[in-house]
DNA sequence: TCGTTTACAATACGTTCGTATTGTAAACAT
DNA sequence: ATGTTTACAATACGAACGTATTGTAAACGA
């Protein structure tokens, strides 16, 4: 009934409904109609805010990345020493919900067919590696190969998150494995 | 026109066509009709070999896992010492083609919606971890936490494969990073 | 030899997809 | 006051989906 609506916020709501659907029933079941139902709006309104389905998926993927970034940002308390911040960042990744992990895999798999998604994920991955590499340098000095160590740590965190999602390992087991690797890089990796 | 046909082989061909499509254009574009066209057969023949689309995807996922297993098996020469075999296994994973990696992510993302796929991937992941853990024990003795180290190594290998697929790092950079981690576990990790 | 089975194609069917079009009522600009 | 936007719903539409049904010709068992 009213008029002016926050356009970006509405788009965000719709994209978030798409993400929920993707996680719950797979990317293949994300259709305009299902998204509209999930968001409790009409099919026509989805079209009003997104010219095409691809644009909707693009925003959903972007928001999924942003969700991860803000989960990481929320986990690191700024006044901690670098070694603690590094651990907190990796722990945040391990603790990601099933939602973020599943959606991430789904979009990553679409990378081959969608150059825009490819760029999004490539840049996101590079940025994450660079950020972790900086923390590694701060925590360990410049004697270590920071980028290589960052890739190792991010790989371990990702694999632990996957294993946790699949129900293979418990949260505490994941933390132990992460700390095992961290203890190789820096002494005193206690929380 | 003739009669007796190797049923399993035919099913394999069709599933492989589905995999190619999945890699090239994403899981969402894997439809009965497209698979039939990719395999150069009629839509009806796909139905003749698979009662349902889900059965087709199930076999495709199973074959994708088998492909990875045989790539790994082909990479390890049996008479090598364990430390060399371990490195060869991980290198084989890093060197996986874009196809296997992308399809793996796509199926893993369908895990939430498909309990059968969930079991397939959970069991596959556990088996891989156990196999690598055994190699770790053989190579380093029982003083190390073999399963934890196996998860770390598999995580690193997977992340390197992903980074290579996205075009972030070169093959040689990936090998260097893998060897960096391996050198922590065992002395003399040279090829 | 003849009926059954099998490999495969063709097509029909109801559903659902993405998109286009149209309608309506509320807010704004003038 | 009025005409243009804007938020939203409804529906129409052709294409493509998964599946069911039917047809045909070749190989087999009897």
Report on the structure:
Two copies of one chain form a homodimer. The first copy, chain A, is mostly helical. Chain A has helices spanning 7-25, 32-38, 43-49, 53-75, 82-94, 98-109, 115-140, 146-166, 171-185. The longest helix of chain A has 26 residues, at 115-140. The termini of chain A are far apart. The model of chain A has no long low-confidence stretch (mean pLDDT 93). At the A-B interface, helix 1, helix 6, helix 7, helix 8 and helix 9 of A face helix 1, helix 6, helix 7, helix 8 and helix 9 of B. Chain A binds a DNA duplex (30 and 30 nucleotides) through residues 1-5, 10, 31-33, 41-45, 47-48, 52-53.
Structural class by sheet pairing and helices of chain A: mainly alpha
Q: What is the mean pLDDT of chain A? A: 93
Question: Oligomeric state of the chains?
Answer: homodimer
Radius of gyration of chain A: 19 Å
User: Which parts of chain A are unreliable, with pLDDT below 50 for 5 consecutive residues or more?
Assistant: none
């Amino acid at each position: 009934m009213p008029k002016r609506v926050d356009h970006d916020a509405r788009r965000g709501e719709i994209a978030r409904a798409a993400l929920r659907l993707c996680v719950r029933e797979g990317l293949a079941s994300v259709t305009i109609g299902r998204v509209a139902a999930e968001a409790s709006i009409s099919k026509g309104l989805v079209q009003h805010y997104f010219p095409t389905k691809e644009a909707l998926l693009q925003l959903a993927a972007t928001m999924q990345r942003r969700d991860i970034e803000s989960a990481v940002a929320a986990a690191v308390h700024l006044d901690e020493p670098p070694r603690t911040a590094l651990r907190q960042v990796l722990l945040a990744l391990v603790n990601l919900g099933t939602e973020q992990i599943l959606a991430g895999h789904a979009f990553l798999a679409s990378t081959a067919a969608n150059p825009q998604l490819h760029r999004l994920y490539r840049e996101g991955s590079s940025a994450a590696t660079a950020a972790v590499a900086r923390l590694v340098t701060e925590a360990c000095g410049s004697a270590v190969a920071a980028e290589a160590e960052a890739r190792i740590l991010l790989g371990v965190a990702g694999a632990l998150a996957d294993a946790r999602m699949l129900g293979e390992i418990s949260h505490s087991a994941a933390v132990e494995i992460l700390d095992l690797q961290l203890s190789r890089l820096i002494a005193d990796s206690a929380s």
